[in-house]
Design a protein that fits this description.
Keywords: tRNA processing. The chain has about 190 residues and is α/β, with parallel strands linked by helices. It is built from five helices and six strands, in the order E-H-E-H-E-E-H-E-H-E-H. Helix 3 packs parallel to helix 4.
């Protein structure tokens, strides 16, 4: 039986809107969702907020359509950075990152991509496949990530709107899948 999840529900300040999105996901049959807090490192020091409390959001989570179980609500931290020093916050001893269920990174350079695949403690590597990739995917890095149990997320939502972006998306996704030998986890984004 297929299980649907959305691991990228953007954390917004409007609690009612967030509740509505999660209720809609449950109504559509999604078994799990992750509320994504994005931290963009443009300066040397960025404060990472604590995740939203699920108990504050819902006293009891909505029931998944067609199942008797409630929707599983996770928290996710995504770090977008351009410098390797920004990823120091991801050390397993960091008290803030331990509060999140899923930790993801969006590397913007080949050096950061290689570091994320080989030695940064993350669950997921986000890859923007909607534009020409600024670096090539290399088999040793990808294999290292697969061996460590790291998943790849392909951000393809913008491809719905534009044919040029769609071409880049398909080309980059095929390139990654050929290198991964089909071992890619692509997540649906609402």
């Amino acid at each position: 039986m297929a299980v649907f999840v959305d691991l990228n529900i953007t954390n917004c300040m409007e609690v009612k809107k967030l509740q509505s999105l999660i209720e809609m996901a449950a109504h559509l049959g999604y078994s799990a969702v992750a509320i994504n807090h994005v931290a963009e490192f443009e300066k040397k020091k960025v404060e990472i907020a604590k995740p939203i409390s699920i108990k504050d959001l819902f006293p009891s989570p909505p029931t998944v359509q067609g199942k008797a179980s409630p929707i599983n609500i996770l928290t996710r931290l995504t770090i977008k950075a351009s410098d390797p020093s920004h990823y120091n916050v991801l050390r397993s001893t960091s008290p803030v990152t331990r509060l999140y269920d899923i930790v993801a990174v969006c590397p913007t350079t080949e050096k950061l991509f290689h570091a994320a695949c080989t030695n940064i403690d993350v669950d997921m590597i986000c890859i923007n496949v909607t534009e020409k990739s600024p670096f090539y995917f290399k088999r040793p890095s990808i294999n290292s990530a697969i061996e460590r149990g790291i998943f790849f997320e392909l951000i393809y939502t913008p491809a719905i709107k534009d044919s040029t972006i769609r071409r880049y998306t398909i080309s980059n996704a095929i390139n990654l899948m050929e290198i991964c030998k089909g071992k890619v986890s692509d997540d649906l984004v609402l």
